[in-house]
Amino acid sequence: MFPKRVTAKFCSALFLCLGSGLEAQIPQTHKTENVIVVMLDGMRWEEVFHGADAALIKTLGPAGLGAAKERAALAEQRYWRESDEERRKALMPFLWSVVASQGELFGNRDLGSDSHVTNGLNFSYPGYSETLTGIADPRVSSNDNTPNPNVTVFEWLNAKPEFAGKVAAFGAWEVFDGIFNKQRCGFVVNASYEPLTSIPPTPELALVNQLKAETVRIWPDEAFDPMPFHTAIEYLKEKKPRLLFLGLGETDDWAHAGSYAEYLNAAHLGDEYLKELWELVQSMPEYKDKTTLIVLPDHGRGLGAQWTSHGKKIPESRETWMAFLGPDTPALGERKQAGPVTESQIAATIAALLGEDYRADYPQAGAPIVDVLNR
Ligand SMILES: [Zn+2]
Question: How far does residue 279's CA lie from ligand 1's centre (Å)?
Answer without folding.
Answer: 30
